[in-house]
Amino acid sequence: MYGEVVEGIEPHVFEDALTEIKAARGVALDTDLTADDLKELTATFKALANEALGGEWTSDPREQLHRAVNAVFASWLNPRAEFYRRANGISRNLGTAVNVQQMVFGNRGETSATGVCFSRNPSTGAKELYGEFLTNAQGEDVVAGIRTPRELSEMEEVLPEAFHDLLATMDKLELHNKDMQDMEFTIEDRKLYMLQTRNGKRTAAAAVKTAVDMVAEGLITKEEALLRIEPSQLDALLHPGIDPEHIAPVIVKGLPASPGAAVGALSFSADDAAERGGRGEKVILVRFETTPDDIHGVMVSQGVLTAHGGMTSHAAVVARGMGITCVAGATGIKIDPKGETVTIGDATFGKTDTVTLNGSTGEVFAGALPLVPPALNEDFETVGKWADAVRTLGVRANAENFEDASKARELGAEGIGLARTEHMFMVADRLPAVREMILAENEEERAAALAKILPMQQADFEEIFTAMKGLPVTVRLLDPPLHEFLPNLVEQSLLVQKLELTGAPADQIAAERITLAQVNRLHEQNPMLGTRGCRLAMLYPSIPDMQARAIIKAALAVLEKEGETVGVEIMIPLVSWESELRIQREIVTKAVEDEFAKAGKSLPYTIGTMIEIPRAALTADQIANQADFFSFGTNDLTQTGIGISRDDAELGFLGEYVEDEVIEKNPFESLDQEGVGQLVKMGVEKGRQTKPGLKTGVCGEHGGDPDSIDFFHRAGLSYVSCSPFRVPIARLAAARAALKNK
């Protein structure tokens, strides 16, 4: 070990010599070698070491100790350590330390031993004996897998006195540290020595059970239990996971866009996925990037794999909202949609091939790996109730359909903080009507298209309001870039050329030319900063009028049918000026009051806005004059505040920025508190200068990130909103924020 770890000699140099002498002596185990054999092997090892080092191996113990200490410090910068730090969010600037301790020997015969033990089962959290040991062995023998360790319970037979000392010490260490302990020990001539103890790594299920049990045992308080469980751990409980015992190699790695695990046969189009998925087949949809046209395929897929797109791409956001596993931006794959194949490395996979996705790590595996189901249980519910009793931040969910809303409520959501109406439009059979609305040449044509859309919207809202009756629901009016609803300009141009070259009917060519002219007229160089949100509504006021009517009709219908309805909150997006919000508020109010007059009844409602442009945050005191509530859209606020395109940045420089520690975290995964966070804080403070009781929430993806939630708590927000499957994470994170910032 000294040669390998300290001097950097390849381990096989020593292993080969050891294997050779065992073969020469006709023995299988290291411990079968005699003392004379080991003396001979020692001389061989020294000679091999000198040869590898190109000099004389030092025999000065002080020099050896000094070099060993330096080797530990040097290990802080090796690739494995770098990878581990990135995975666990540890800065390389933190530094490390070296512990020097006296050595004891577990290989002094059958009255000596070495082992590893836990004070509780790290897989389940059960309070039971868990560990392994080997007699006549050193610690490395237990973990290296060369010899098969024995169950810890068997130690009572061979070394009873040391065994009972160990049990007493395990209890004492757990009581002192008030946490499950992972311990290493050595027994030398029947005497027990403890080498180290630390808080044990454990599964999510074990973390929850251990915390609940320790509260019941009086070892820790409920508050300590909440601080003990990492919110990110709960993610593993809410999605199926890959069996940790698997040994399959990773074939490609992308971005971990939506957690959980998924197994399925490859599908290369949304139509194919919808057809096969509708028949009950398990499919993985593989696309360059998903679009609104693919939603029907995404909804029935087990998982989504894309070659392009980032953590907040269409595929990622939709998949997270639906609880579907997604690996995005796997740039190492080459897709042939016509041939229905994907090439990964040297291997090519087709429709009949199965793959496994790990959306929590971004890893992809060939074949079907065994999955383990989510482990929601009574302990999980107990922790959730403790969190709810402590937190001051409300927790809502982002949802656009009955299933998501119901799941959110089941997982503890206190309402919906964001219902994105454009997601309701992004369904294949509705797109023609939406395009008809956008491409209309006059108000009459637009009114006809809106008349088709209104009942669809109303039906959607009725489903959501039924699922969430008695709770508040914030409905955001239409907020997509126009290009998401329109044919692609280049593709439409090529279509016209193709029709002309193939001699298609004149009326067909004329119709496609008109569409091309309309798309060309509406084409924008930067649509994400173009005609979207309230800007679209300013151009076409009949759109917010229709949506407001659909919302109110739905709320009244649910009230009639169910006896209660939701707290209606209508949100106007992408506001930059107070005047925009004032005009839009007038349009919405007029439509709402008209519907009340027609129905002969009314209900409470509020009108607010989404703060997602820096100017809105800077002038929040003015905008608050027209708003009943604020909801911060931190995805777009991050883009506009930092000045970067999230999809381009995540596939471009952001990964290297994080890896090289230019920035600590991806700002689209965890809020940039020093920059974008100050816009949020300013927006809250300025808004409440005008309206002291102003309700403020956040509905970006950051609403489910524990570090961001801690900031939102400190900034004084009223609630956070996140995807349904992150609601339990947000509930726990909000409780921890309240406890930490007491």
Observed structural traits:
16% strand, 7 domains, elongated, 47% helix, D-amino Acid Aminotransferase, Chain A, domain 1
Topology, element by element:
Elements: H1 2-6, H2 11-25, H3 35-53, H4 61-75, H5 79-88, E1 113-118, E2 130-135, H6 139-144, E3 150-151, H7 155-158, H8 160-177, E4 181-188, E5 191-199, H9 204-216, H10 222-228, H11 231-238, E6 241-242, E7 252-253, E8 255-258, E9 261-267, H12 270-278, E10 283-287, H13 295-299, E11 303-306, H14 314-322, E12 325-328, E13 333-336, E14 341-344, E15 347-350, E16 354-358, E17 363-366, E18 371-372, H15 378-390, E19 394-398, H16 402-410, E20 416-420, H17 421-425, H18 431-438, H19 443-467, E21 472-476, H20 489-501, H21 506-522, H22 534-539, H23 542-562, E22 567-572, H24 578-599, E23 605-611, H25 614-618, H26 620-623, E24 629-632, H27 634-642, H28 646-651, H29 654-659, H30 676-690, E25 695-698, H31 706-715, E26 719-722, H32 727-740
Parallel strand pairs: 9-10, 10-11, 11-12, 19-20, 19-26, 20-21, 21-22, 22-23, 23-24, 24-25, 25-26
Antiparallel strand pairs: 1-2, 1-4, 2-3, 4-5, 6-18, 7-17, 8-12, 9-16, 13-14, 14-15, 16-17
